[in-house]
Design goal:
Number of strands: 13
Low-confidence stretches: 216-227, 232-244
Radius of gyration: 38 Å
Strand content: 15-25%
Order of helices and strands: EEHEEEHEHHHEEEHEEHEEH
Shape: elongated
Distance between the termini: 84 Å
Mean pLDDT: 76
Number of helices: 8
Largest sheet: 6 strands, antiparallel
Structural class: alpha+beta
Oligomer: single chain
């Protein structure tokens, strides 16, 4: 693997990945570089949290008819990958995209034949979709739900004002910063920069003994007395205070009912009452997981791993073998219905008899009606067109 170029302090970088051997089969090629690619993506994500990835496959092709050799490439669109992504699945998604393009190119009757696969180039760009900023007005449909506290700050510390509004709620829904204490007197923010970066939130939690969820980018596993939910919206961080307001905010999107919903802080599943929510948090959330399909080879129930028959368990024995016993067919003559024939047979070897009878009958039809050559009538000299019945002009 080779670093081709880099820019903006490695926030943009291009790598070239070679295989140790030369392959013309792309499945073998990608399996040989799989670990290198996954390791590269893993290391970059550790640094940047999320990256945009483009992959481009290069191959050496030959046009046999003209003895021309040329390099062809097949690239993918941008794909955003973050720390929550399964890199093994991501790798095969890129592989499918590139191999599909390669196969379509060779099927277009271009005449180009693949000699060998050269390498894969991977372009990596740091992805910054969200970040804290100053005050941004909420969309009207969210603001009307009264489930969001969006403090009208004029600095770059929207994140801190959101935290302060949760820790020190006011009776009236005032959004002015003068209604809240100065964050520097309440929170430990030493060494932090603003607008806040998502990776710094974990440090902020440890220093201030606060558990924070940023929907939908980060889910905390801690349960602390001071628990705050943040909604990251159009680079402005605003806050939902408690499950009551969260229910008010999203209820219309999940149900036509007007009854309050109780949301789990860990997975955002919702329940109709607090008792069901409590049972879920005690027994299900973070205790169960969903098993998703993998690329591992599965045991075929009819394959090598099948068990020997056990008289103590149910199993299947072959007791009968069914064979065809009868057949029927109708041969219909379009020019003489008296020659049409219906054939019915019942007895042993029905399949063999059917083939022989059909073959014999078709042979007779060919010999009697298709093989004989019927002489053509001699052409006559005509003066009138047989279609329009008008005389021919000289």
């Amino acid at each position: 693997m080779k670093l081709i170029q880099t820019a903006f302090k490695s926030r943009i970088a291009s790598y070239r990945v070679h295989s140790e051997n030369r392959y013309s089969d792309y499945n073998m090629f990608f399996e040989s570089i799989k670990n290198k690619v996954i390791h590269l993506l893993s290391e970059v994500i550790k640094i940047h949290n999320a990256v945009k990835v483009i992959m481009e496959l290069f191959g050496r092709y030959i046009l046999q008819t003209q003895k021309i050799v040329d390099n062809k490439s097949f690239n993918t669109a941008n794909k955003v990958i973050d720390s929550a992504a399964d890199l093994n699945d991501v790798f095969y998604v890129f592989v499918d995209l590139m191999t599909t393009q390669m196969s379509e190119f060779q099927k277009r009757d271009s005449g180009w034949e693949l000699q060998f696969i050269m390498y894969v180039e991977i372009d990596l760009n740091k992805f910054c979709a969200f970040g804290g900023s100053s005050y941004i007005k909420l969309p009207s449909f969210i603001e009307k739900k009264k489930g969001i506290v969006n403090v009208h700050n004029q600095d770059q510390c929207c994140f801190l004002w959101a935290i302060i509004s949760a820790l020190h709620p006011v009776r009236e829904r005032t959004l002015d910063v003068s209604s809240y204490p100065q964050f520097s007197t309440v929170l430990d923010i030493e060494g932090m920069t603003f607008p806040v970066n998502l990776r710094d939130i974990s440090k902020f939690e440890l220093r201030n003994n606060i558990s924070i969820n940023v929907h939908t980018l980060k889910v905390t596993s801690k349960t602390i007395k001071s628990y705050i939910e943040l909604l990251d919206l159009n680079v402005a961080i605003v806050i939902t205070v408690g499950s009551k307001n969260l229910s008010r905010l999203v209820l219309s999107q999940i149900s036509n009912s007007q009854h309050k919903k109780y949301f789990c802080d860990g997975c955002l599943l919702h329940f109709s009452n607090e008792n069901l929510l409590f049972q879920h948090q005690q027994n299900d959330c973070n205790h169960l997981y969903t098993s998703i399909p993998s690329r591992e080879i599965k045991k075929d129930k009819y394959g090598a791993y099948i068990l020997e028959p056990n008289p103590h368990y149910s199993y299947t024995n072959r007791t009968f073998r069914h064979e065809p016993y009868s057949f029927a067919y109708l041969i219909k003559y379009s020019f003489n219905d008296s020659l049409s024939k219906f054939e019915l047979y019942r007895g042993a070897n029905a399949a063999n008899v059917f083939v022989k009878k059909t073959e014999n009958y078709l042979t007779r039809i060919y010999e009697n009606y298709l093989k004989p050559i019927i002489p053509m009538e001699h052409l006559t000299r005509e003066n009138v067109c047989g279609i329009c019945e008008k005389p021919f002009l000289e």
